[in-house]
Each structure stands twice: as C-alpha cells, then as structure tokens.
Amino acid sequence: MVLSLVRRIIVDGWPDRRCQLNPQIRDYWSVRDSLVIDDGVILKGNAAVIPKLLRVWYIDKLHDGHQGRVKMELRAKDAVYWPGMRNDIESKVNACQPCQFTRPANDCMELTPDHQHPVPQGP
C-alpha cells in the first residue's frame, strides 16, 4: 500500500512541500530526488526499496554471519533501502547476544588525578 503511494507520487510528481504529502509516505521526502521506477521496482539509486512486510527478512539476511552494525550497513547500502533502515540494523545488532558478546569493549576510565599527566609549571 505505501509503496503504491510512493510509485504514484514518483510518476505524478512530488508536491512543493513535505506537509502536502500523505503522512504514510513522508519518510520518503528526503530521498525523493533519487527514487526511480525500473521495470515496476522502486529504486533508490541501485538499491531496491523494500516493503515493510519484507524488512525483517532482509535484516535477518544482512545479519547472517553476525558481522555487526557497520558491516550490515555496508552490505545493505548498495542493495536495499527503506526509511529507518539504519535504526532497524542497530536494533537487530543490539538485540543479538552473540554480537554483544564479541563486540569490542571500550574501557572508559574516569579521569581522576591518578590517571592524568602532571601539569607543567611553565611553557
């Protein structure tokens, strides 16, 4: 349904203002200039725009191998697109126990006088 509206607006033309759009497709406003239709498929550049029902499946496929958020985004960048994809990828990685277990830990130490270099008296 949403992609049908997007397809129609691509063919008919975008309005002058975002507020004139149907609220369901306002998320596509920021990428409107890069959306095209090729053989019935909506593309953003070379990436296919994925309908809501298939996004979980694509997230699972991108997550095969537990490569983490950055690698998932790189894999997705040229193949698929949907509004909020980065947030969905981040949520998937944050909810994955093996990814959290193998994630590098930054040991943030609090800066206390014991951990600071002495301040010189002069230049």
UniProtKB/TrEMBL annotation:
<feature type="domain" description="Integrase zinc-binding">
    <location>
        <begin position="50"/>
        <end position="104"/>
    </location>
</feature>
<dbReference type="InterPro" id="IPR041588">
    <property type="entry name" value="Integrase_H2C2"/>
</dbReference>
<dbReference type="GO" id="GO:0003964">
    <property type="term" value="F:RNA-directed DNA polymerase activity"/>
</dbReference>
<protein>
    <recommendedName>
        <fullName>RNA-directed DNA polymerase</fullName>
        <ecNumber>2.7.7.49</ecNumber>
    </recommendedName>
</protein>
<dbReference type="Pfam" id="PF17921">
    <property type="entry name" value="Integrase_H2C2"/>
</dbReference>
<dbReference type="InterPro" id="IPR050951">
    <property type="entry name" value="Retrovirus_Pol_polyprotein"/>
</dbReference>
